[in-house]
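Need tokens for this chain, all 71 residues.
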Amino acid sequence: RENVSASVLPSLEKQRGLSQVKLAELAGIDPGHIARIELGDIVTGIDILAKIGYALDCRIDFIDNTSGQTI
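Here are the structure tokens for all 71 residues:
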């Protein structure tokens, strides 16, 4: 299972000029949790991803529907 959070978060932080600490503050979670996600030490749940997405002003897509099929 690929940990997309670990590969995407640092670049989104950089694009928005945020540190891990500031992102954690905006998301209302512990800065250490952000660090562990980015290191790939943990795979986070949908609740934390939603908070991070909101803090980064990003849409979180859970299903890749590139086939055009209706789910």
